[in-house]
Structure formats: structure tokens, C-alpha cells
Amino acid sequence: xxxxxxxxxxxxxxxxxxxxxxxxxxxxxxxxxxxxxxxxxxxxxxxxxxxxxxxxxxxxxxxxxxxxxxxxxxxxxxxxxxxxxxxxxxxxxxxxxxxxxxxxxxxxxxxxxxxxxxxxxxxxxxxxxxxxxxxxxxxxxxxxxxxxxxxxxxxxxxxxxxxxxxxxxxxxxxxxxxxxxxxxxxxxxxxxxxxxxxxxxxxxxxxxxxxxxxxxxxxxxxxxxxxxxxxxxxxxxxxxxxxxxxxxxxxxxxxxxxxxxxxxxxxxxxxxxxxxxxxxxxxxxxxxxxxxxxxxxxxxxxxxxxxxxxxxxxxxxxxxxxxxxxxxxxxxxxxxxxxxxxxxxxxxxxxxxxxxxxxxxxxxxxxxxxxxxxxxxxxxxxxxxxxxxxxxxxxxxxxxxxxxxxxxxxxxxxxxxxxxxxxxxxxxxxxx
Length: 432
Known about the structure:
Elements: H1 11-35, H2 37-40, H3 42-49, H4 53-81, H5 83-101, H6 107-121, H7 123-135, H8 142-193, H9 204-211, H10 229-235, H11 239-270, H12 274-280, H13 282-304, H14 309-331, H15 336-365, H16 371-386, H17 388-400, H18 404-423
């Protein structure tokens, strides 16, 4: 069955869309290069500062926990003040913090730097969801979300060779300082080029096009003080909200385990050098980027063919998480570094196939006025779950000297995430 005819897109709206997605995509690459820096320098820092695997796991986990907690105020701030201010301020904070990380002297200062990085990076994903929701028609949202999300996996893919090269040339301290500078420049570009939809001056033709992208009709619903505290607290009383938090936790647990410990896994289990690890680590996250783009193309194709958006996104979520869990179980049984990297690549392909659909599902289930808050709460719950991945893996590694049990746990969390989307996430989010 063919879906409804798309409205003709005004040229200025198309230009706004391209500029916004381009800046967010570049930001996504920088964001995840910065985020993956500690994993690349893991072994070197542990040796120089005398840290155990458990302590390194704590440093890796404190980022995700601080990131999770930061999501709650970020969602409220985004719905109230808009993406331009909140995203720009966050970008400046995370970039400056990354530069300062190069001067840490021990566990305590490293701990503080990881918290600062997490708080600064917290607005990125939620701002992206809100930008796409505000400026794109519902029939087109999965593809721009896929481009932005694929940029994060591209950042994860290029991070190992780039960071390894910088670290070999300038040391791990010089690496942290160097990678913080591009984010400062991009923050200034964002402030200069982007305007929130709720304050943008639009013509009648543009307003008519944008009204068709709203879940609740007119873009006038965007004006006002934002979601109230009572409405925000009411989101936590809805079964669907908890299902989305738990389900997306299956995605972020897997991503965070691989991003935090994959380089160390390749070095410990397959005896790769630091330089070789940087090259092999490109494979899994490149596969993830392909999965992210495939998710966007498939989802938009299904919606344009008349398939209900919620059904389309949930199908990709359940299928992706289930297949990801199965692939994670296979990783430890594959021979050689290439086989292991390809196995992790397939796991991340399916993880990101599900991940992009998860952000599109937020836009399909949440009313316009609370998209930022719902996306933030989903990310909060998922990163609380994800924060256990690095520290549990480090603790198990100290005691078993093997990644076997950590990978089994990861697979189980992925399958439980699929079950949450299948059974718990059934009704739209309501604001009362």
C-alpha cells in the first residue's frame, strides 16, 4: 500500500535541514572521537598511572553514569530553551574539558575530567532528535537521524587509527589536548548558523509544510514555557517510557562495552600491538555505521509504503537487538583478530540497526512538546544500564582474566532489550 503523498518542500527549509544535519554530523564524529579516547589510551594510562583494570573500568563507567544523570535536566532545558543554546554550550564544555584532561595527575582528577566530558556531551543526541523532529516531515525523519547517528559510528571507526597516531607522536596527554580544539571551533559555527524552529521566522508556505510534520498539528504548539514539572514527572508513570529506557539500555550496554574494552580485548586475546589495534578496531564500528544507514533507509521506505511508523521502528528494534546478542555470543569462538573484529562488527551492525530505530520511535510516540524530555529520559535509563558494562567487564577481567563471561552477559542484555520493546512498549506517550 502506498503512503500519503509528501508535501513539496520549500527551498529554504531544505537548506536549513542540510546545514543542521551537516553540523550535527561533524559534531557526531568529534563527539565520539573524544568519547573513545580513554579506551584507546587504556593500557598506556594504566601502566603510567598504576591503575588496575577495575579502576579503569570505574573511569569508563563514571562517564556513562554522569552522562545518564545529565540527561534529565538536559531534556527539560532543551524543551524550554532550545537546541541552539543548550547544544552549543555543551559542545564548548566537552571540548574545553577534553583539553584539560591532558593535565590530569591521578585517579581523582581523571574522575572529575570524565564527569565534565559527560555533562558537556549530554545534549548532543537529544538535540539531534529534537532538530530532526522540528525540521523534517515524519516520512523523512529516519534517514537524517541515520546520517547523524552514522556519524557517531564513523567517529568510533576513525577514532582508533587517529587517536593511536596522535598518541604515538605526542603521548596520551598531547592526544587529549589536540582533540579538544575542533569542538570549540564547531561550537562557534553552531551558534552562528543554527536557529531554533520556535523562534525562526517562516513564511505561510513554510509553516504549512512544517505543520504537516507535527504529531499534534500546528507548529504553534511549540511556543510557550515548555513541559511543566508535573507533566515531566508524569512521563515516569507510563509503562511505555520504562519499556523504552530498558529496551534502549540493551543497545547502549553493547555499544559501551565494545567502545570501552574492544581495543584491550584485541590486545589481550589476540596479542595485537597498539598500532595494529588501531587499524583492526576500525572494522567493527564501520560495520555499525553501515547498520545505522541501513536502518534509516529501510525505515523511511517502510513508512512511505504506508506501514505504520511505530510498527516499522519496533520491528527493526526487536530484530536488531536479537541478532546483536547472537553475534556477541559468537565473537569469542571466532579465530584470529580479523575473525573477532568481523564478529564484533556484525554485533554492532545489528545494534546500530536497532539504535537508529529507537530514536525514530521517540519521535513517533512522543507529542511535539515533550520530544526532548522523552528522548532524554530514554537516554538516562539506557546509560544507567550502559554504565555497568565497563566496570563489570573490568571487575570480571581482574578475577577471571578472560572476556568470556562479560560477552555472555552483554548478549543476554541485548535479548532482554528486544523483549522490552516487544512486550512493554505498546502505547503512545501521553502528556497530562
